[in-house]
Design brief:
197 residues; alpha+beta; Glutaredoxin; Glutathione S-transferase Yfyf (Class Pi), Chain A, domain 2; 2 domains; 54% helix; binds glutathione; glutathione transferase; Glutathione-S-Trfase_C-like; Thioredoxin-like_sf; glutathione transferase activity
């Protein structure tokens, strides 16, 4: 089996769907977590200056969605044909749009401004996406009515969103709640979460 090293920060964020996929696919990996004070000495040596990165037998892979897609292809979670893969990519792309709307939270320093953005995200922006995901998840999954890496990406990501916003975001979306239960109980994922609550 190839050797895998994931390099990220000591948070779930964009690293967590990769950790879930590696765990589900039974691929042992080193989970390297960079401390914030050590980041400047790593940043310049990393293409794009961003993590997560995944080293597979010494070859470095970049971009969390591209890394997940690569792992998914290895594990038949990337669709059975190009149309199915497109449906998965579209769902993941929409979630990246949502993360883009959330990302200004890290730059805003004024507490009042930060709370205003959090309120707007919680009351309008996030529900507009979650409503659509909930409709799609009536089929049991987020793409093609079957398990794919989109489910890992979005369920892991919604956990991070709840942490960042500091509120429950999905209890009003029963199909998403059911999907979360399903994904977080998958073999490998369940054990990973138990070890890393
Ligand atoms: N599109 C990239 C975004 C990566 C990204 O923004 N990483 C952040 C952490 S979540 C980072 O490395 N920040 C440190 C920096 O930019 O110096 C991906 O999905 O991998």
């Amino acid at each position: 089996m190839p050797s895998y090293t994931l390099t990220y920060f000591n948070i779930k964020g964009r690293g967590e769907p990769i950790r879930w996929l590696l765990s589900y696919l039974k691929k042992d990996f080193e989970d390297k977590r960079i401390a914030p004070q050590d980041w400047p000495k790593h940043k310049d040596s990393i293409l794009f200056g961003k993590v997560p990165v995944l080293d597979v037998d010494g070859k470095r892979l970049y971009q969390s969605d591209a890394i997940c897609r690569y792992l998914a292809k290895e594990g038949n979670l990337a669709g059975d044909n190009s149309l199915e893969s497109q449906e998965i990519d579209a769902i993941v792309g929409s979630f990246n749009d949502l993360l883009g709307a959330v990302s200004p939270l890290w730059k805003i320093t004024d507490p009042k401004e930060k709370e205003e953005l959090k309120d707007k995200l919680k009351s309008t922006v996030i529900p507009s996406y979650f409503k659509i995901y909930d409709d799609v998840a009536k089929s049991g999954y987020l793409a093609n009515g079957k398990l794919s890496w989109a489910d890992f990406f979005i369920i892991a990501g919604q956990g991070t969103l709840e942490f960042v916003i500091g509120a429950d975001l999905i209890s009003g979306y029963p199909n998403l709640v059911a999907l979360r239960t399903k994904i977080t109980n998958l073999p490998g994922v369940k054990e990973w979460i138990e070890k890393h609550p």
